Amino acid sequence: MVFSSLLFLFRFLPVFFLIYFLAPDRAKNLVLFLGSLVFYAWGEPVYVVLLLFSTVSDYCHGLAVERARRMGKDRAAKAFLISSLAVNLLMLGFFKYADFLIGSINAAAGSAIPLLELPLPIGISFYTFQTMSYTIDVYRGKVPAQRNIIAFGAFVSMFPQLIAGPIVQYRDVGEALRARRVTAQGLDAGIRRFCLGLGKKVLLANQAGALFEQLSGWEASERTVLAAWTAMLCFAFQIYFDFSGYSDMASGLGRMMGFTFPENFRYPYTAKSVTDFWRRWHMSLSGWFREYVYIPLGGNRKGIRRQIFNILVVWTLTGLWHGAAWNFLFWGLWFAAFLILEKLWLLGPLSRHPFWGRIYTLLVVLGGWVLFSMTEPGALSDCLRAMAGQNGAGLWDTGILYELSSSGPLLLIMAVGSTPLPAMLGRRIAAAKGGWLAACLWPLLLFGLSVAFLVDASYNPFLYFRF
Length: 467
What we know:
Blueprint: H1 6-22, H2 28-43, H3 48-70, H4 74-109, H5 124-140, H6 149-157, H7 159-162, H8 170-178, H9 184-216, H10 225-257, H11 274-277, H12 283-294, H13 304-322, H14 326-352, H15 354-373, H16 377-387, H17 398-417, H18 421-431, H19 435-455
């Protein structure tokens, strides 16, 4: 079940919120926990057991770590922490990376070890990172262990951000799990945020994705330079509006229930450097790796060589986190290379020339999306050759000019929509005389248009579900 589906919008969500709002405060965590399990089991009826196992395991480990620390048994606390991390990483590794490892061994050794072909549990990369951060923070003394297993289960399985983030750390919601208020102001802000995310997803991301699929389906030998670059621009818009739209919907749902989730995107395509880009894109993931991997490895405190090593480790893991395939590893190393170059030489010149910094950043990011989107080596090679004009198809043809003439306005809307300009305009309109009416109408308009598109939609994927 995805947020941008009629089933979710008109069946699951109304029933859930009716029960949630009618339930007394002391029962809201139970309603959230059970509702989240129903939501997850709708798409993963078998792997809901895995989610429950992860919940019980980290609940018990958190209590054990805190008890050992309180008794002064640091070695025991560290042992419980390592046990918790091992369980989470083994579970993630088995389901997500076993076939990748077997396939790599077969390719290198010429063996024929059969693949396990296990379906990937939805959202496993997100909820394992959440539970690992919880146990680590309990060990560090940053948060108390949660003694109510229903409240902890609500944290782990919370359906708004369960399957595609943002990655919510326990300290972000721990107080709200204990006591929270559903307010008219929170409902209003949450509904607006949800409608904005739904519009991003349905009206922009889906249209960009359909055009990307169409252009990528052209014969490799007939794909002109302009067609290849337009296809990758469409993918860049698709993945941004898809993922940021989902994050907006998740934040909106959380706000309606009394939670405040961390921001996940801040106009990344306006970044002036690759370093700046990763301060704006998927901020909950980059923040997680910074806090739990980069800084413990030494960060930038042990000299430039160690810092370069730490960047390589973090971005190798970041690439593999996104998928069990070589293209994701190369994608991570691609960004690691530019981050290292910026640390050594480029940040100064880029800061002095922001216009060229933005152009450079967009080119690097588009190059990264080529690696990210092409999982097959042949498709990657065809795309790169077309973008470089090395396939003999020329710069453009009538086919791509026709597509641009019909899709140009949509691409322009997405380009503007990925900047702060619409938000600035919206604030000005809301502040103007009579602006309250426009502020009330735009969420209804976005919701109505999105539903109209969904009625006949045949293309409605969520890219980050596979991670």
